[in-house]
Design goal:
The chain is of the alpha+beta class. The protein contains ten helices and eight strands. Strands 1, 2, 3, 4, 5, 6, 7 and 8 form an eight-stranded mixed beta sheet that branches. It is extended and about 115 Å long.
Amino acid sequence: MEAPSLTNFRVQFYWGALQGIRAPQRPTPDCEWIVVPDAIPSIVDARTFEAAQQVFREKHWSLSNEQVLEPLRRVLKTKGELTYTLIRSEPHTLSADGYRRRFGTLTAAFKLAGYNSPRIRMAQRKKTLQTLRRELMDRLVNMFPGKVSILSRGPIRKDCLRLKNGPRVGVRVCRSKTMVIQGQVWIVRPAGLDKRLVSLVAGMNADNTALELFYVVPPIANLCQVNVSLNHKWLKSGLRLSNLSSFCEVVRTILLQCKGKAGIPMSRPKVSLSHQARASIATAQRIRWERWRVRKRQASLRIGAG
């Protein structure tokens, strides 16, 4: 259905042969094409050919960015918002993957269409948390060279800190918000892999641009996000860091307080048994030993008789 492409191919092959087999191919400009109308008997009539060309031109890979964004603008004008579900239900829009391949992300396509998606603020907030968390961990490693290191737990799981003598410490950066009654609180996200670890809780300032509060707390195994104020029992159970230079000392203090609860192996407790209990255990062991000797003697007799 694309006869000019065949003519173009023939011209390129001809000039390539003149330039040599190893010569790089150079596309021929449209103005230099050699077109002979009706040189080859057509398989379909002109109307069918033009209809097929129109179908090719209307395919999404042939549309410009503005033509692709126009259906999104119509949906935004009608519905007042843009979501993944609305895109799927609209027949004239691309799929979500189509917009991702063309614009990088679905949020970027929404922004070009004139819609400020809440996902933009969420993505920026998440990126800020990740940046501050990484900077805090690097700062502690630089402050305690050889004593504190970053333990990687895979490409998806969050990293944690490890002290020289082995204990691991989780790092939990908490975003700040202001409540009507409680005032300033910090949002503690679900614990995840840090539920059994002593954690360094870092609270952000009121503008959520920097860290201003540091606590070392015992393991917190919360399954959902919790708003924590300065009077919360979790923070009261830990110790506040006035300076990060005391991080290692405070961590060791908390580890001693919650030994056996933060994944630290404990020695087996010594249990004192009474004389009667020890005699009962010895009697049971002796009876079991005598039964085993009887079974062994009977098995030997059966083998000898056979």
